[in-house]
């Protein structure tokens, strides 16, 4: 049996380099101001999917919701071993909170059709909420296994995994299809030189149209031929809009987001702020009170 594994990955701003321009006045992230990287734990999720492919036979499909530039993380996934990619992109998705993001991803999974496993990273380093995976499982009506480190067994319509917990580890089993969130720990394989040579030409339809425009090609028929040619060579990255995945307009983007990110800033602790606390109940109690007072806690 060959399994179908959907992996959702996110292109994130490199939050190690937050600058003043990081936020737009409407509270959304100014992606152009920050270098974009592959969300680290999504590399672990992709690696787990590729290990399932090596061990049990599987087709690995990688999807991302983001601006056109997010196609970069899809090409990086193809270079590592993914078989097919989906870019979910539409201005209507912009400014989404986790509720709207997980809804959009659920529409994408439903449009893709039949799958046995959905993998997500535990969390993204920008929003840091770890909410999208569990929310997506709910929207797809799937059992979920969170903080997965290792797959022990896969077969007979079920999966058995191992995860670390305080003071030890747990072994859990779930029926397929299932959603799993993956934590760091495995060693994502590097991009493969041969695959880079093959898949560096992988394009979305919009990227191809842009390449044509840059080369002053205006022939729509020629563009259509090229799209078909790329598809025939498995180099076409699917590009789906909100309409193409039947997403309800009031459930996506800013419109579908009850949570609004007001502002973000770098917190840089300077040496001067260090403070010694008496190792007594009163000392600790005083510190906790202070942290609650200045909203560091609670
Ligand atoms: C500083 C900051 C704070 C925020 N705080 C909140 C908040 O409190 N509540 C809220 O609802 N929103 C918040 N957001 C918005 C939130 O970042 C977005 O909704 C985002 O798309 C998903 O949330 P996350 O980044 O926390 O992802 P997480 O829930 O941490 O992501 C978990 C996994 O879901 C998958 N995933 C997440 N986003 C995508 C995507 N676009 N495409 C494909 N797979 C994806 C990946 O596998 C990822 O590893 C915040 C954003 C920022 C920048």
Question: Which structural class do the helices and strands define?
Answer: alpha/beta
CATH topology heading: Rossmann fold
Small molecules (ligands, ions, cofactors) in the structure? flavin-adenine dinucleotide
Oligomer: single chain
How many E strands?
12
Let me know the CATH homologous superfamily.
HUPs
Uncertain spans: none
Order of helices and strands: EEEHEHEHEHEEEEEHHHEH
Q: Report the top-level CATH class.
A: Alpha Beta
- CATH architectural type: 3-Layer(aba) Sandwich
Spatial gap, N to C terminus = 49 Å
Determine Rg (CA atoms, Å): 22 Å
Beta-strand proportion: 15-25%
Major beta sheet, strand line-up: 7-11-6-1-4-5-12
What is the 3D shape? globular
Largest sheet, described in full? 7 strands, parallel
Structural domains: how many: 1
Q: What's the overall average pLDDT, rounded?
A: 91
Fraction of residues in H or I helices: 25-40%
How would you describe this protein?
With 298 residues, the protein is of the alpha/beta class. The protein has a single domain, classed as HUPs (Rossmann fold), CATH 3.40.50. It is built from eight helices and twelve strands. It has helices at 40-56, 71-80, 98-112, 132-140, 193-199, 205-214, 220-232, 281-293; strands at residues 3-8, 11-13, 36-38, 58-65, 84-88, 117-121, 144-148, 150-155, 158-165, 168-175, 178-182, 238-240. The strands form three sheets. A seven-stranded parallel beta sheet has the order 7-11-6-1-4-5-12, sandwiched between helices. α2 (71-80) packs across α5 (193-199) and α3 (98-112) packs across α4 (132-140). The longest helix has 17 residues, at 40-56. 35% of the residues are buried. The model has no long low-confidence stretch (mean pLDDT 91). Residues 8-10, 29, 39, 41-42, 45, 64-66, 96-98, 101, 105, 120-121, 123-124, 126-133, 259, 261, 264 line the site of flavin-adenine dinucleotide.
């Amino acid at each position: 049996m060959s399994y179908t594994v959907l992996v959702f990955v996110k292109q994130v701003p490199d939050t190690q380099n937050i600058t003043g321009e990081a936020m737009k006045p409407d509270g959304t992230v100014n992606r152009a101001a920050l270098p974009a990287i592959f969300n680290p734990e999504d590399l672990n999720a992709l690696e787990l999917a590729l290990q399932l492919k090596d061990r049990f036979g599987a087709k690995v499909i990688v999807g991302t919701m983001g601006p056109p530039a997010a196609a970069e993380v899809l090409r990086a996934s193809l270079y590592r071993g993914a078989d097919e990619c989906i870019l979910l992109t539409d201005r209507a998705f912009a400014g989404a909170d986790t509720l709207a993001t997980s809804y959009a991803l659920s529409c994408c999974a439903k449009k893709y059709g039949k799958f046995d496993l959905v993998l997500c990273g535990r969390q993204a380093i920008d929003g840091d909420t770890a909410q999208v995976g569990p929310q997506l499982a709910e929207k797809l009506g799937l059992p979920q296994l969170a903080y997965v480190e290792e797959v022990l067994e896969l077969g007979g319509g079920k999966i058995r995994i191992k995860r670390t917990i305080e003071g030890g580890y747990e072994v859990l089993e779930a029926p397929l299809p299932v959603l799993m969130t993956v934590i760091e720990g495995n060693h994502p394989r590097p991009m493969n030189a041969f695959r880079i040579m093959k898949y560096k030409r992988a394009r979305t339809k919009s990227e191809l149209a842009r390449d044509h425009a840059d080369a002053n090609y205006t022939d729509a028929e020629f563009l259509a031929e090229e799209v078909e040619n790329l598809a025939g060579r498995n180099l076409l990255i699917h590009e789906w809009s909100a309409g193409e995945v039947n997403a309800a307009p009031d459930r996506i983007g800013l419109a579908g987001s009850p949570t609004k990110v007001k502002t973000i800033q770098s917190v840089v602790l300077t040496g001067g702020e260090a403070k010694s606390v008496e190792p007594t109940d009163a000392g600790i109690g005083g510190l906790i009170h202070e942290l609650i007072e200045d909203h560091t806690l609670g």
